[in-house]
Design a protein that fits this description.
335 residues, alpha+beta, Nuclear Transport Factor 2, Chain: A, six-stranded mixed beta sheet, disordered C terminus
């Protein structure tokens, strides 16, 4: 008879420690090698990377331009166990001063706030797979940069590798799970599947009238109308794209509301007007991560993130921008 695995209740603390090691203590040498498997798969929306070196390069790029960067873990939800390893969905709020030149241009001295969301799989305290999305759009908006133009220039860099993450670049890893069987994860997954199947009437039915949402670009929204604007614009831009939920976690934790975390993707052609301006026909892959909290009146808080810059790179990489680029929404600092 197969022995039942035991949940690793210390895994959220481990991921908080990883964030401290990487972003606060900046232990990018031996500390990073101790935490990461040599064959780490680092699926970051802007690029596919391998080994601890990929995670180090990503951190160095950000720390060079934001030398006082501080990261705070807002939440961690996890599944799995001691025997098979655990996967945690982590949400970070990062703050720093744009005091160094680098990937975001010359230092401006502006204070920046943005989020990063990730799913991290580890066994025996060695990380072997990461799916990560950084809110590059929020950084660019706060710096007054044009997102599509920045993405086009980055796509033309000679050190850009194979470009943004997409299925053709993916490699199989040790984690093959789909999450846990919590009703909250299943409910959140079912809600997004209905929304992305054009069932937008589900939003006023399932969202709390006073719901608060945080979306890409540091944009904050309130109530069902705010959620509808975001999801409608995304689906309208990619009307025939295939929506897939790859992983779901539900959590009921003492002193916390019921919560859920999803990893999803949207893959297809940019055929419609919506979140990304005039249709271009470009093939696009969107890696998305969503967290939610639930209350007596439905979904009360939502955090959804995809990297707008990674999408713009796929749409406009190496080609001239169309005359009618999508206007960038008014930035609102992450809260």
């Amino acid at each position: 008879m197969r022995r039942q695995d035991t949940a690793d209740d210390s895994y959220p603390a481990f991921l908080r420690e990883v964030a401290e090691t990487l972003w606060t203590r900046r232990r990018l040498d031996a500390g990073l090698r101790e935490l990461c498997h040599p064959q780490l798969l680092h699926r970051q929306a802007l690029a596919m990377g391998y080994g601890p070196e990929a995670l180090r390069a990503d951190a160095l790029e950000l720390l060079a331009t934001l030398p006082d960067l501080a990261a705070h873990t807002e939440d961690v939800m996890h599944c799995g166990g001691v025997r098979t390893g655990s996967l945690g969905a982590q949400r970070l709020l990062l703050q720093g001063t744009h005091a160094g030149g680098g990937v975001f241009g010359a230092a401006s001295g502006k204070r920046l706030r943005f989020r990063m969301m990730s799913e991290v799989y580890a066994k025996d305290r060695r990380i072997s797979e990461i799916w990560a999305v950084r809110d590059t759009g929020a950084i660019l908006r706060q710096l007054g940069c044009d997102g599509p133009d920045w993405a086009r220039q980055r796509a033309r860099l000679p050190v850009g590798g194979d470009g943004p993450f997409r299925p053709a670049l993916d490699q199989p890893g040790p984690y093959t799970g789909g999450g846990n069987g919590s009703q909250w994860g299943m409910a959140f997954a079912a809600l997004l599947e209905r929304i992305m199947a054009a069932g937008f009437s589900e939003i006023p039915a399932q969202y709390d009238p006073a719901a608060r949402m945080a979306y890409p670009g540091g944009v904050l929204a309130e109530g069902p109308a705010g959620a509808e604007r975001f999801w409608f614009a995304l689906r309208a831009a990619l009307p025939d794209a295939r929506f897939v939920i790859h992983h779901r976690i539900g959590a009921e934790t003492r002193l916390m509301p019921p919560r859920a975390a999803l990893r999803w993707s949207l893959t297809g052609r940019h055929l419609g007007w919506g979140a990304f301006g005039a249709p271009t026909g470009a093939e696009v892959h969107v890696m998305g991560l969503s967290h939610a909290e639930f209350g007596p009146d439905g979904l009360r808080r939502e955090w959804t993130l995809y990297d707008e810059a990674a999408v713009w790179m796929q749409i406009h990489g190496g080609v001239a921008l169309p005359d009618a680029a999508a206007p960038m929404p008014e930035v609102m600092a992450a809260q």
